[in-house]
């Protein structure tokens, strides 16, 4: 039986809040102490994604990302009537999470906001590719043929950590409009925010198209004699 919507929305709001608390919280802690380093922040994002998938995936799917929700809908694997409620829950959860991170931050902190390092055009390209690859991995490992329990969470979280490690210095490696919107709103750093809204959605829709091209099909059978 499909989980009731209110349970799913609570899981998505809670999960997205926790994503911000531990993910952007790691960035804020490193900003103050330099104890984690860039690699530590990337690892924190990967680890929290793994925990969320294993802890909440059976309730809501643990999307915790509006672009992922849109991607699953476009792939025909998520009901359209749940898209807007999921996105709303994710945004609310993200804002709550950023509000909690603000309690730890020093004045003037960006709260882990994603900002282009070398201009909006480069950041857009980086976010487009990172989001494309993340969604493609998600779609492939959650297909019925490949899905193998814990390995799904490990593969997705490793992808997030890898992309944060490599793409973080260039664009912030958001791949998630809610993850970027919340710290931007709470800290007041809304520069080039459109990049982090448009690029993740575009990249994940491109992944849906690519996933369909990669689908294995049986070769045509010769006509019976």
Automatic annotation (TrEMBL):
An example Pfam family from this entry, by short name, is MIP
Concerning InterPro entries, the annotation shows: Aquaporin-like, Aquaporin_transptr, MIP, MIP_CS
Name the Gene3D superfamilies on file.
Glycerol uptake facilitator protein
What membrane topology does the UniProt entry give? Multi-pass membrane protein
Localization terms from the record: Membrane
Q: What keywords appear on the UniProt entry?
A: Membrane, Transmembrane, Transmembrane helix, Transport
What parts of the sequence cross the membrane? 36-53, 83-105, 117-139, 151-173, 193-214
Chain segments annotated as coiled-coil in the UniProt record? none
Q: Which domain of life is it from?
A: Bacteria
Q: Which family does it belong to?
A: Belongs to the MIP/aquaporin (TC 1.A.8) family.
The identity of this protein, by name, is Aquaporin
Q: What is the lineage of its organism?
A: Bacteria, Pseudomonadati, Bacteroidota, Cytophagia, Cytophagales
């Amino acid at each position: 039986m499909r989980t009731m919507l209110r349970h799913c929305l609570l899981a998505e709001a809670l999960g997205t809040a926790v994503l911000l608390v531990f993910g952007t919280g790691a960035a804020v802690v490193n900003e103050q102490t330099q104890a984690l380093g860039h690699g530590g922040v990337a690892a924190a994002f990967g680890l929290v994604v793994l925990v969320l998938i294993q802890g909440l995936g059976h309730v809501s799917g643990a999307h915790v990302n509006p672009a992922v929700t849109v991607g699953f809908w476009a792939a025909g694997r998520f009901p359209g009537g749940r898209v807007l409620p999921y996105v709303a829950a994710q945004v609310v959860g993200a804002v709550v999470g950023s509000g909690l991170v603000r309690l730890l931050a020093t004045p003037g902190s960006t709260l882990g906001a994603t900002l282009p390092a070398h201009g909006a055009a480069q950041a857009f390209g980086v976010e487009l590719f990172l989001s494309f690859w993340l969604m493609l991995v998600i779609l492939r490992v959650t297909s019925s043929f490949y899905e193998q329990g814990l390995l799904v969470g490990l593969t997705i979280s490793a992808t997030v950590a890898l992309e944060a490690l490599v793409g973080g210095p260039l664009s912030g490696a958001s791949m998630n409009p809610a993850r970027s919107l919340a710290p931007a709103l709470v800290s007041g750093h809304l520069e080039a925010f459109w990049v982090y809204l448009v690029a993740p959605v575009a990249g994940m829709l491109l992944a849906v198209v690519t996933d369909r091209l990669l689908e294995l099909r049986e070769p045509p059978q010769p006509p019976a004699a």
